Amino acid sequence: MTSNNDPDDRFDWHAAEADLTTPDADVVDLDAARAARHHDDTDPTTDTVDLDGPAGRVLVDSPDAQRSPRFDLGSLRAGERRPILPAWIRSRAELCDAMRWAVGHLLHTTGYHAVRVPKYAGRLALRSPVGVWRVLSGGLRWLFDLEGEPVRQATVQRANAEEYLKLSRQRDRRVRWRGIIATTALTATIVGSVLVAFAPEWVRWASLATLVGLFGIVGRPADKPLLDTAVVVPRVAKLTSHVVVSALAVLGIAGINQAIAKQGQKAIAFTSPITRDGPGWRADIDLPAGVTAGDVIERRDRLAAGLARPLGCVWPEGRPEVHPGRLVLWVGDQDMATAKQPAWPLLKSGTVDLFRPIPFGTDPRGRNVPMDLMYTNLLIGSIPGAGKTFSLRVPLLAAALDARAELRVFELKGTGDLEPLALVATRYASGPDDDTLEEALDALRELRKECQRRAAVIKGLPKSVCPENKVTPELASRKNLGLHPLVVAIDECQELFSHPEFGKEAGELAEKVIKLGRALGIHLMLATQRPDARSLPTGVSANVGTRFCLRVMGQVENDMVLGTSSYKNGVRATMFTRRDKGMGYLVGAADDAQITRTYYVDGPAAERVCQRGRALREAAGTLSGHAAGQQTASPAAVRRDSLLDDILTVVPAGEPKVWAETLVERLAELNGEIYGDLTRDQLTAALKPYGITTGQVWGTDPTTGKGANRRGIERQHIADAVAERNKHRGDKAA
Ligand SMILES: Nc1ncnc2c1ncn2[C@@H]1O[C@H](COP(=O)(O)OP(=O)(O)OP(=O)(O)O)[C@@H](O)[C@H]1O
């Protein structure tokens, strides 16, 4: 019955029998036992446990453990309820979008065919003689039962008189009643023709057109439809499990290859059927043991080659919350980079309530990706030219459409990419120079103070008005409280954070603002093309709530922008290519990381949106600062212009030398608004451009009255610098 070649021969039936006869093992699952034996071949320690020496070996995969769990109410309660209505019907925006598409499709098709009516009429006229011929010949064949003729001829040939008689009788019967019908129809046609001949002219033409149309339809060639194609629908190949497994097999991942070699197609488990999901296919995959979704995502280009689809159609994503080996593969019908993207929903009309999500971009399926701006901050990072500034512009434009929001915008590249926002911004500065950087730094200083002020306001409010100790839409609308949304954007923020003089302070301030401002209606948006430790302080990158990472080149930058372990978990912005402009991973806007392409709003369109935002502010009386034409020089600029004169004011002519610390105190006393934050280091740096350096000078401590050598300046150096400056000014004026 058995042969030596049968692998089951090597199975230890005695051991299995012993297992069977142990008191608490009532059933042995033979499949499990065989599987245990196979594993045993490779590693004898994995599937059996030696509890009491050789006699006590028991199977690890016990029948109890292998039995499917019984149904219980708990598992039903834990089950995931599938939505009754599909997501696109529940979302107002998506429903409107679908409706818009349906109406547009209908109008296009109608218009397309309407202009071709003369062409279709000509076609029908040309085809109508064939139609007449088909009707007449078909009618005669039917009338004389000609389709039965070959059979009758065959019976004649076989000289089968009885059968021939039967067929002839049947034919006579048929021809008789068909003749009656044909005669009636012919009579009706003649009567109809006579009536039409005496009818008004339009009836005659209409009848002729109808007849031509009908005969034209009947005379249609089988391979040529009457109507041209108004909409060409692209045909895409189906995604099947076979295609997916074959593509995964060519990625060169050892774990996948070994599993496929052992188990074939079964090595890749599909956790649910491959389905259509939006304009593409979706496969939910459990990768073989030990292979992570990140391993596949890293080889997206090879995966696309394996699937024989353009790279922009293939979007593998991990689901680390399920397990690291769960992969969701979405294969679009069209390349995401070239597929037509819907316009930004607020492009032409609409206002924004910043306490509600704003439309930020679209996902690979073309659906809107919303983003919250309140109670969070935003960090955008990528290599140069991937679409950072365009991405930053979208939430800024949304903020522009909320009349309550105050915008402060600093663009540190100096190309004017955010220029349209100057129409609505309370503060706007653009430039790569130190002055602009210092303005941005000042803005952060102000924000820190604003945080303190707002915190005090909120603390002073009764719990009934402010139950969660954070700004609510109602509080933000109360002008007297000054708790309106305050949106501050710094594009190319690496310039500020890596600045030798301002960098450290800016990093500390930004971290404080990010941590505190969130609940106080202050929203900081940072965009950087150099997401590394020097250009993006860890205190900043670790505390930002919402992150958008466009194309980056490595794991470090990826995790700097998207958060620690993102790369390991398969959220890899390294997979985006040069063509994927405006595309990135959005983290923090939803539970999972989302592949998002930001809405494309170009310069002129952005300007039109800002004009609307400006009109809203004018109506609400909230236009202020830069946008309102109040070109107040920045504290940095004022300080720079007046520093030398103010030093001469606070250091009398009889005091040749003064300590830097004394000078800083006196300047703050003179003008707290401009010099309140001035530190000794900043003073030293501000004097450097005039060639004035601080050195050890003798002075007396006013509190102790003791003399000492400390860092300070000589008054004469300042006086010389003022004289030099005035000379220059005089030259220029002349
Ligand atoms: N959502 C988008 N869809 C299509 N193209 C886009 C999108 N966003 C940006 N682009 C294109 O990418 C180009 C670069 O964008 P952007 O200037 O925002 O890049 P950047 O990362 O800020 O560059 P840099 O670091 O040099 O400032 C733009 O000229 C634009 O045409």
TrEMBL record:
| Keyword list, A-Z | ATP-binding, Cell cycle, Cell division, Membrane, Nucleotide-binding, Transmembrane, Transmembrane helix
- A Pfam family this chain is assigned to: FtsK_SpoIIIE
Residue ranges with Basic and acidic residues bias: 33-42
Q: FtsK domain spans which residues?
A: 366-559
Q: Tell me the InterPro entries matching this sequence.
A: FtsK/SpoIIIE/SftA (IPR050206), FtsK_dom (IPR002543), P-loop_NTPase (IPR027417)
The organism's superkingdom is given as: Bacteria
Which residues does ATP bind? Answer: 382-389
Membrane spanning stretches: 179-199, 205-222, 243-261
Task: Identify the stretch(es) annotated as Disordered.
Answer: 33-66
One GO biological process this protein is involved in is: cell division
Question: What protein name is recorded for this chain?
Answer: Cell division protein FtsK
Its lineage opens with:
Bacteria, Bacillati, Actinomycetota, Actinomycetes, Micromonosporales
